[in-house]
Specification:
Blueprint: H1 2-32, E1 33-37, E2 52-56, E3 82-86, E4 94-101, E5 106-110, E6 113-116, E7 119-120, H2 124-127, E8 144-145, E9 150-154, H3 164-167, E10 170-171, E11 175-184, E12 190-191
Antiparallel strand pairs: 1-2, 2-11, 3-4, 3-11, 4-9, 5-6, 5-8, 6-7, 9-10, 11-12
Length: about 190
Amino acid sequence: MKGNKKKSAIREWIEAAVVAAFLAFCVIRPFIIQAFKIPTGSMRPTLLEGDLILVNKFIYGAKVPFTKYRLPGFREPKRGDVIVFIYPEDKKKDFIKRLVALPGETVEIKNGTIYINDKPLLDPVFNKRYYYNKGDFIDEGQKLVVPLDSFFVLGDNSGSSKDSRYWGFVPKDNLLGMAVVIYWPPLRIRSIK
């Protein structure tokens, strides 16, 4: 009798572990929330190297793995969102940047200021920083129109960020989610703005 109780307890523990693993890898990670580690200083001071963050994958509509389909989202991406996306030049890498220009908008960087449709961005998220206009994709004084299925993104640390200035637009299909919180290290726990 004791042996059956012991087997039953072990079996229950294994079943619980299998269910938890299934939920984590087949439901939570692909559709709800995913953890990422920040590898570089391109988003300083918002995100530092080594920060561990959580990304909300359902807000814009999570991609259904191994398909072209996306679930319905709760809202469209907005200017200022810190987004995680599949790097357009290497589909095996995920990048994180701040969304600056939306589909159909004209973007220009001049004298350290971002202009959208010929108007400077005055939001404190953007106007506290100096944005360098260097890169392979955009030149000083050049205006770019964001394609209807894409976004223009920049790193908060403009002098040390490979972003849309270098490789162009982020296709909407590459969008993975919105960074919402730093959860490690403990002294940096906060929501991401």
